[in-house]
Amino acid sequence: DGTVELPFLGSVYVAGMTQSEIESELTKRYALFYEGGADDLDIKVRITSRAKFYYVFGEVREAGRQVLSEETTVMDAVMGASPLVDSANMARCRLIRGDPLDPLVILVNIQQIITEGNSTFNLTVREKDIIYVPPTWLAEVGYFLRRLFFPIEQIFATLLSSLRTYDYLSDEDFRRGGGR
């Protein structure tokens, strides 16, 4: 919230100040507690910040948590996650933000940004935003067929494996009883 809690001073608002400005302000405020005033004080401030993150999922090579830089846009986030050329539906990306029970979902047409330069919805990504890159309709059909035929694929793989084992047996081995 832009404040720091300090002994004797309580909450001190420091948002937007530089390191030297904070040191100067704290020296001035703490000087009231020392007989020698500001001359007896040597206040040093170190500003650190924790990394902020956003998330990219869907038809990208590098899905998951990403480090947020100050001016990351939706297009930066999607392109940085390496969208899958054959399956990513760049015209229907979604930026999801806000309340988990009532999220704000914004459709972002990355394809239009690239081809027409229309960056109206190329919004700046915020901490904890989720960006979803959906599959194209053709990729969805392919995924459906893969799920549909997965059991059959497993049966064929097992049969082929056993046939390969049979092929390694010679006719003579088979006649001697090596093959059953």
Would you mind describing this structure in some detail?
This protein has 180 residues and is of the alpha+beta class. Helix content is 34%, strand content 18%. The protein has five helices and seven strands, in the order E-E-H-E-E-H-E-E-H-E-H-H. It has helices at residues 19-30, 74-80, 110-116, 137-167, 171-175, and strands spanning 3-6, 10-13, 53-58, 64-67, 93-97, 104-108, 130-133. The strands form two sheets. Strands 4-3-7-5-6 form a five-stranded mixed sheet, covered by helices on one side. The protein has a two-stranded antiparallel ribbon with strand order 1-2. Strand 3 and strand 4 form a beta hairpin. The longest helix is centred in the C-terminal third of the chain and has 31 residues, at 137-167. The chain is elongated.
Which stretches of 5+ consecutive residues score pLDDT under 50?
none
The largest sheet is:
5 strands, mixed
Number of DSSP strand runs: 7
**Considering DSSP H and I runs of 4 or more, what fraction of the residues is helical?**
25-40%
* Strand/helix succession: EEHEEHEEHEHH
- First-residue to last-residue Cα separation: 77 Å
**Class from secondary-structure proportions:** alpha+beta
What percentage of amino acids are in beta strands? 15-25%
Shape: elongated
Question: Number of helix segments?
Answer: 5
Average pLDDT for all residues: 86
Compute the CA-based radius of gyration.
Answer: 31 Å
- Read across the widest sheet, the strand sequence of neighbours is 4-3-7-5-6
